[in-house]
Amino acid sequence: MAVSATVIGALLGLGTQMYSNALRKLPYMRHPWEHLLGMGLGAVFVNQLVNWDAQLQKDLDQMLEKAKAANERRYFDDDD
Q1: How far apart are CA 18 and CA 7, in angstroms?
Q2: 38-67 pLDDT per residue, tens
Q3: Minimal CA–CA distance to 9: which of 44, 51, 53?
Q4: CB within 8 A of 28, min separation 6: which ones?
Q5: 0.90 exceeded by the pTM?
Q6: 18 exposure class (CB count in 10 Å sphere: 0-12, 13-18, 19+)
């Protein structure tokens, strides 16, 4: 998953830079270092997005387990 996220991010960064050059009617590969910078930032962004999504899912699972346990204590405990 990490390789595909990195490739997708790099393509996103490259596409953003090329689109920016096209909008300004500049040559696509003007200042190649900007393309490398865009690819690097895109790769970092998408990898962080994947990590954030995994952490969010873990936190959600923990919250649902706590809510389930609280509901079971509330409705199924025989403390009467």
Answers
A1: 16
A2: 999 999 999 999 999 999 999 999 999 999
A3: 44
A4: 18, 21, 22
A5: no
A6: middle
